[in-house]
Design goal:
GO terms for molecular function: 4 iron, 4 sulfur cluster binding; ATP binding; ATP hydrolysis activity; ATP-dependent FeS chaperone activity; metal ion binding. This is Iron-sulfur cluster carrier protein. Helix content is 35%, strand content 24%. By secondary structure, the protein is of the alpha/beta class. The chain has two domains: 70 residues, Fe-S cluster assembly (FSCA) (GMP Synthetase, Chain A, domain 3, 2-Layer Sandwich); 251 residues, 3-Layer(aba) Sandwich (Rossmann fold). Strands 10-11-7-13-6-14-15-18 form an eight-stranded mixed β-sheet, sandwiched between helices. Strands 5-4-3-12 form a four-stranded mixed β-sheet. The protein has a two-stranded antiparallel ribbon with strand order 1-2. Bound molecules: adenosine-5'-triphosphate.
């Protein structure tokens, strides 16, 4: 059970036209005990908020105790995100920002973001990689920079870590360590994300690859609405369950006018090392069928390869450790296609 599941459940409920998640000042999960502090815009809403919280959490049996507290106040809008929708801010020094999103977790979004960044860099571009996956920042592990400390420059801007020629910044560098309980403060987190996005000394980049949190929640939507993005890439696996969520992700980007550059089909097939035969473990052709129906494009299909996970654990993406593998070739082809497509626009 993660705070994310709780936030997802609470997001479904609203009082007085405001989602419960927007009223949260503080939320803390320690073991099976949940503590939520809400901002209370009107005293008379207290009972309704309590009732709707319990109702929303009914189907989460892992949450045993719920302690609800209130402080006076209205939903807080963080400073940089408080501007009207669609007044987007550019990230200083960045020519093109490509967001990598997914409808659901675990489909290989971070793997794609990491290898796409490497492939773009190998094509000769100046590349940065920004890991905004607050639920599970895995870029530091993929690049072997876990636990690195981030410094600031004279303008108080964060200085990315440089690895394999790529400038890397992860929200994981700023979050508390893994063994401390997850503490989620909505507006505080948004404020941190704002600094994390805009107050960074990237130098001059051709491409900044942004690894979004999985799903289509408030954080993803807020980021997509407020950051000037060249386009988004949606990662999926060919299972029906993942594809259903891709619809949500593409709809979210369309809703906020972020062009969807295309869909990457990850773990599309497995190549038997002995016979060289391809096996479409999760089914063949489903992603193509889906993207056609939604007038999207498949940017590429990445095979399933145990080396991907192995190389991730060693802190060097497969595009560097084994550039000749089928997986790497697919990533290089995607990077070429994406950069050509962006340059043609
Ligand atoms: N093509 C692939 N072949 C084999 N394993 C893969 C492939 N792509 C990703 N994986 C593995 O699948 C797991 C999930 O990948 P990853 O962390 O990139 O997914 P994610 O969508 O970013 O997940 P999360 O939502 O948790 O951030 C990792 O162990 C990764 O090494």
């Amino acid at each position: 059970m993660a705070v994310k599941d709780i936030m997802d459940a609470l997001r479904e409920a609203s009082v007085d036209n405001t989602k419960l998640t927007e009223l949260i000042k503080d939320i803390k999960l320690i073991g099976s005990s949940l503590e939520v502090v809400y901002r209370l815009p009107k005293k008379e809403l207290e009972e309704e908020i309590r009732r709707k919280t319990y109702q929303a959490l009914e189907n989460l049996p892992d949450v045993k105790n719920v302690n609800i507290r209130f402080v006076e106040g209205v939903p807080e809008v963080p400073p940089a995100f408080g501007q009207p929708a669609f007044t987007r801010r550019r990230v200083e020094g960045v020519k093109h920002l490509i967001a990598v999103g997914s409808g659901k977790g675990g489909v290989g979004k971070s793997t794609v973001a990491a290898n796409l960044a490497v492939a773009l860099s190998k094509l000769g571009y100046q590349v940065g990689l920004l890991d905004a996956d607050i639920y599970g920042p895995s870029i530091p592990t993929l690049f072997g920079v876990k636990g690195e400390r981030v410094h600031v420059d004279e303008r108080n801007r964060l200085i990315p870590i440089e690895k394999y020629g790529i400038k890397i910044l992860s929200i994981g560098f700023l979050l508390p360590s893994e063994d401390t309980p997850v503490i989620w403060r909505g507006p505080m987190l948004m404020k941190a994300l704002t600094q994390f996005l805009f107050d960074v000394n990237w130098g001059n980049l051709d491409y900044l690859v942004l690894d979004l949190p999985p799903g289509t929640g408030d954080v993803q939507l807020t980021l997509a609405q407020n950051v000037d993005m060249t386009g988004a890439i949606v990662v999926t696996t060919p299972q029906d369950v993942a594809l259903a969520d891709v619809k949500k992700a593409t709809a979210m980007f369309k809703e906020v006018n972020v062009p969807v550059l295309g869909v990457i089909e990850n773990m599309a097939y497995f190549i038997c090392p002995e016979s060289g035969n391809k096996y479409y473990v999760f089914g063949k052709g489903k992603v193509l069928e889906f993207v056609r129906a939604y007038q999207l494009q498949v940017l590429g299909s990445i095979p399933m390869d145990p080396q991907v996970a192995e190389t991730s654990d060693t802190g060097m993406p497969i595009t560097l450790t084994n550039p000749e593998s089928e997986v790497s070739k697919a990533f290089y082809a995607i990077a070429k296609l994406v950069s050509e497509r962006i340059l043609r626009r």
